[in-house]
Design a protein that fits this description.
By secondary structure, the chain is an alpha/beta fold. Helices cover 41% and strands 22% of the residues.
């Protein structure tokens, strides 16, 4: 325990200093610094979301869906991979406040290809986390792809017509298009209290510049609170 606390304190000190470096190096450590607080901020945001709807984009088998359901009035969990979605249904079957949507969240309604990790069949539990609608993602295979439904998430939020306590986004590269569209809709953003998103520029280098812009824009919103260093 002492070693763990020392290690966290050391990382906090190191990242705090290094985030002042210029250019990409400073941005890298700023995100690492923000990431140190992400889990604690997520837990606090859930506590403030009692009686509200929360949304889990990229729910996978439901680890965070269950956690969100303990505090929220309702959790809407999106998962496009049919294998993961079946596990999700089993894992939250005892919860009556979870609604599951077997679809990808995107910027328009259409059928779209979902790509899996090349080792998916060896260990679906592990590699289902990598499934993505982005063909250029480094850890998926174009040879293992199949059609899934994608919904227009902005349209979904408008039709939902209620405040969202926490929106968690872990959609393996598809977050860039979605966040860009959300950031262009301040009327929709204003109904969300907290956004926690994981970005995937390490797996999709072509997204790096767009993600840098998203980080800059995120700092200018008073509401919602936005943390793009989830995980």
């Amino acid at each position: 325990m002492k070693k763990s606390r020392f290690h966290r304190a050391y990382k906090y000190f190191r990242y705090s200093l290094a985030r002042s470096f210029p250019g990409d190096l400073g941005r890298y450590y700023q995100r690492k610094f923000t990431g140190l607080h992400a889990k604690a901020e997520f837990d606090e945001a859930l506590l403030r979301s009692k009686g509200k709807t929360c949304i889990d984009l990229g729910a996978n088998v439901g680890v965070y869906t269950r956690k969100m359901a303990l505090e929220a009035k309702q959790v809407i969990a999106f998962e496009p991979d049919p294998w993961a979605c079946a596990k999700l249904r089993t894992n939250v079957a005892d919860l009556d406040n979870v609604k599951i949507v077997n679809a990808a969240a995107g910027v328009c309604e259409k059928k779209i290809l979902l790509y899996r990790h090349p080792l998916f069949e060896n260990n679906p539990t592990l590699y289902s986390e990598s499934s993505s609608i982005i063909a250029d993602k480094r850890n998926v295979s174009e040879e293992d792809a199949f059609e899934v439904r994608q919904i227009d998430f902005i349209d979904f939020l408008e039709n939902l017509n209620e405040d969202i306590g926490v929106l968690k986004i872990d959609i393996e590269g598809a977050e860039v298009d979605l966040l860009e569209s959300l950031f262009d809709r301040p009327d929709v953003l204003a109904r969300i209290n907290h956004i926690f998103a994981e970005t995937h520029e390490k797996r999709i280098p072509a997204h790096k510049q767009r993600i840098n812009v998203l980080y800059e824009k995120a700092q200018n919103f008073e509401r919602p609170y936005i943390n793009l260093s989830w995980h």
